[in-house]
Amino acid sequence: GLEARFxxxxxxxxxxxxxxxxxxxxxxxxxxxxxxxxxxxxxxEASLLVVDSEVYEVRxxxxxxxxxxxxxxxxxxxHFLQEFxxxxxxxxxxxxxxxxxxxxxxxxxxxx
Length: 112
Fold this sequence. Notes:
About 45% of the residues lie in helices and about 25% in strands. It is of the alpha+beta class. It has a three-stranded antiparallel beta sheet, with helices on one face.
Protein backbone atom coordinates (compact mmCIF):
# COMPACT_ATOMS: atom_id res chain seq x y z
CA GLY A 1 0.00 0.00 0.00
CA LEU A 2 0.82 3.66 -0.17
CA GLU A 3 2.03 5.30 3.02
CA ALA A 4 2.53 9.05 2.89
CA ARG A 5 2.48 12.14 5.07
CA PHE A 6 1.77 15.61 3.74
CA UNK A 7 1.96 18.94 5.50
CA UNK A 8 -0.07 20.82 2.92
CA UNK A 9 -3.40 20.40 1.19
CA UNK A 10 -1.84 21.83 -1.99
CA UNK A 11 0.79 19.06 -1.90
CA UNK A 12 -2.04 16.55 -1.70
CA UNK A 13 -3.76 18.24 -4.62
CA UNK A 14 -0.54 18.04 -6.63
CA UNK A 15 -0.28 14.34 -5.88
CA UNK A 16 -3.89 13.81 -6.97
CA UNK A 17 -3.16 15.80 -10.12
CA UNK A 18 -0.21 13.54 -10.86
CA UNK A 19 -2.27 10.39 -10.52
CA UNK A 20 -5.11 11.90 -12.53
CA UNK A 21 -2.85 13.00 -15.41
CA UNK A 22 -0.84 9.76 -15.21
CA UNK A 23 2.52 11.51 -15.01
CA UNK A 24 4.13 8.16 -14.25
CA UNK A 25 4.02 7.41 -18.00
CA UNK A 26 6.86 9.82 -18.72
CA UNK A 27 10.16 8.58 -20.11
CA UNK A 28 12.59 6.94 -17.70
CA UNK A 29 14.81 9.50 -15.98
CA UNK A 30 12.72 12.47 -17.14
CA UNK A 31 11.66 14.76 -14.31
CA UNK A 32 8.48 16.79 -14.47
CA UNK A 33 7.66 19.71 -12.19
CA UNK A 34 4.19 20.54 -10.93
CA UNK A 35 3.20 23.79 -9.23
CA UNK A 36 -0.17 23.72 -7.50
CA UNK A 37 -1.92 26.78 -6.11
CA UNK A 38 -4.55 26.25 -3.44
CA UNK A 39 -6.71 29.33 -2.94
CA UNK A 40 -8.80 28.77 0.14
CA UNK A 41 -11.27 31.18 1.67
CA UNK A 42 -8.71 32.58 4.10
CA UNK A 43 -5.33 31.58 2.74
CA UNK A 44 -3.33 30.80 -0.37
CA GLU A 45 -0.67 28.08 -0.70
CA ALA A 46 1.69 26.93 -3.43
CA SER A 47 3.49 23.60 -3.63
CA LEU A 48 6.26 22.56 -5.98
CA LEU A 49 6.52 18.84 -6.67
CA VAL A 50 8.99 17.02 -8.87
CA VAL A 51 7.92 13.72 -10.37
CA ASP A 52 10.53 11.24 -11.53
CA SER A 53 9.09 7.90 -12.66
CA GLU A 54 6.70 7.08 -9.83
CA VAL A 55 8.47 9.11 -7.13
CA TYR A 56 6.76 12.34 -6.03
CA GLU A 57 9.04 14.72 -4.14
CA VAL A 58 7.81 17.93 -2.50
CA ARG A 59 10.52 20.49 -3.24
CA UNK A 60 8.86 23.52 -1.76
CA UNK A 61 5.84 24.89 0.05
CA UNK A 62 4.82 28.50 0.54
CA UNK A 63 1.70 30.18 1.73
CA UNK A 64 0.05 33.12 3.37
CA UNK A 65 -2.81 33.20 5.81
CA UNK A 66 -3.27 36.92 5.11
CA UNK A 67 -4.46 36.47 1.56
CA UNK A 68 -7.33 34.23 0.59
CA UNK A 69 -9.78 33.48 -2.15
CA UNK A 70 -11.98 36.50 -1.43
CA UNK A 71 -8.95 38.81 -1.61
CA UNK A 72 -8.03 37.40 -5.01
CA UNK A 73 -11.60 37.84 -6.28
CA UNK A 74 -11.63 41.45 -5.03
CA UNK A 75 -8.33 42.11 -6.79
CA UNK A 76 -9.64 40.64 -10.06
CA UNK A 77 -12.81 42.77 -9.87
CA UNK A 78 -10.75 45.93 -9.28
CA HIS A 79 -8.39 45.01 -12.11
CA PHE A 80 -11.17 44.53 -14.64
CA LEU A 81 -12.94 47.74 -13.60
CA GLN A 82 -9.66 49.61 -14.20
CA GLU A 83 -9.15 47.88 -17.56
CA PHE A 84 -12.69 48.78 -18.67
CA UNK A 85 -11.98 52.40 -17.72
CA UNK A 86 -8.69 52.43 -19.68
CA UNK A 87 -10.50 51.10 -22.76
CA UNK A 88 -13.30 53.64 -22.37
CA UNK A 89 -15.83 50.86 -21.86
CA UNK A 90 -18.69 52.09 -19.75
CA UNK A 91 -19.35 49.73 -16.90
CA UNK A 92 -22.32 50.51 -14.68
CA UNK A 93 -21.44 50.20 -11.01
CA UNK A 94 -24.87 49.15 -9.83
CA UNK A 95 -25.01 46.13 -7.53
CA UNK A 96 -26.42 43.79 -10.19
CA UNK A 97 -23.59 44.51 -12.65
CA UNK A 98 -20.92 44.26 -9.96
CA UNK A 99 -22.36 40.95 -8.79
CA UNK A 100 -22.20 39.65 -12.35
CA UNK A 101 -18.57 40.78 -12.69
CA UNK A 102 -17.69 39.26 -9.30
CA UNK A 103 -19.31 35.95 -10.31
CA UNK A 104 -17.28 35.84 -13.53
CA UNK A 105 -14.07 36.72 -11.64
CA UNK A 106 -14.81 33.88 -9.23
CA UNK A 107 -15.23 31.52 -12.19
CA UNK A 108 -11.97 32.69 -13.77
CA UNK A 109 -10.13 32.23 -10.47
CA UNK A 110 -11.34 28.63 -10.25
CA UNK A 111 -10.18 27.92 -13.80
CA UNK A 112 -6.75 29.31 -12.96
